[in-house]
Amino acid sequence: xxSLIVLYTKPDDVEGFESYYRETHAPIAGKLPGIRxxxxxxxxxxxxxxPAPYYVKAxxxxxxxxxxxxxxxxxxxxxxxxxxxEMCKRFGADAEIMLADDx
Length: 103
Hints:
By secondary structure, this protein is of the alpha+beta class.
């Protein structure tokens, strides 16, 4: 299994970001070919009770790195990327993107 992990900082407009994510961005990302699972979580803080540097974690799971790479390089991947950038700009958030593979 391979995953695309996106960590979003807390947006300036939390309500707008969450609404847009659910209603617009998630359906766009859900069209990625070969996607097996999508997990989105609001990050509440650290075990020590301190604020976390991120607000939302999204994980998109694929069968393999090859499947993920093909999906991200295709039209749906480009659409998802463009929409994520626009969403961050519009609602005042930043995104850290990472690739992961099971071991």
